[in-house]
Amino acid sequence: REVLRLEGLRKSYNIGQPNEVEVLHGVDLCVDSADFAALVGPSGSGKSTLLNQIGLLDSPTDGELYLLGKPTREMDDEARTALRGRNIGFVFQFHHLIGAFTALENVLMPVMVARGKPDRETLDRARGLLADVGLEKYADRKPDQLSGGQQQRVAIARALITRPALLLADEPTGNLDTKTAADVFELLRRFNAQFGCAVLVVTHDPRLADTCDRTITLVDGRIDGDERHDAARADA
Ligand code: ADP
Ligand code: ADP
């Protein structure tokens, strides 16, 4: 199933000003629900800009972005936010967990923001996701009582609580040691298979990119390579 399609997507900043700059120069890309894809490229190539576009955090200057078949360029902020909330999960380099909340409450956050008090089913799903990431026993801990890897696993569970069709991760392991980073990629892979949730992950680490099924390379605001490959083992 097609989750995402970009057609001739362009993005400029500072439009109409002397420092106007086009950062994405017509990106075409298709992402399927089965995809577990790495987005790589040199610093400044436009990865964050592209991720902001795909995450519906910002609108394109030209071209079109379809999420689940819906064109999004003409959407107003409200519609964009609603579509994002229902269909996209985010994991960042820094987990952005709320320090005053327990792991379980953090996982429930996206639902509570959208709908208020979580129902029984949502609570069960949150506990299930914490179990899936190996943190069943840590549901009542605050973030500062968890290791960096555990915090990032809570952030992954939080990103999945709304059952997104697409999980976007921006350098989710940038802050973690090699073994913990490989574990996080294993988890992403498992959710990709288990939930049929497309995963797109920005990484600087070629070894981690090799553990994905597809590597999309961005250079100077253009897709410079898009290869499907058999996943290499992180510990190979
Ligand atoms: P990457 O994530 O690959 O490092 P970015 O998307 O952050 O690349 O940046 C790509 C280019 O766009 C850079 O030259 C950067 O300076 C520029 N850029 C990014 N965001 C803005 C912005 N808000 N205003 C102006 N230029 C920007
Ligand atoms: P069903 O078609 O019966 O909903 P799924 O395979 O879609 O079965 O889901 C199985 C379980 O995984 C359900 O409990 C569902 O809530 C959960 N689930 C499905 N997709 C996601 C997702 N993207 N993120 C988190 N949980 C999910």
TrEMBL record:
SMART domains: AAA
CDD domains named in the record: ABC_MJ0796_LolCDE_FtsE
Record bears the keyword Transport: yes
Pfam family, one: ABC_tran
Ranges for domain ABC transporter: 4-236
UniProt entry tagged with the keyword Cell division: no
A single GO molecular function term of this UniProt record: ATP binding
SUPFAM superfamilies xrefs: P-loop containing nucleoside triphosphate hydrolases (SSF52540)
Coiled coil: none
Keyword set, alphabetical order: ATP-binding, Nucleotide-binding, Transport
Family note: Belongs to the ABC transporter superfamily.
Matching PANTHER family: IMPORT ATP-BINDING PROTEIN (PTHR24220), LIPOPROTEIN-RELEASING SYSTEM ATP-BINDING PROTEIN LOLD (PTHR24220:SF689)
Name assigned to this protein: ABC transporter ATP-binding protein
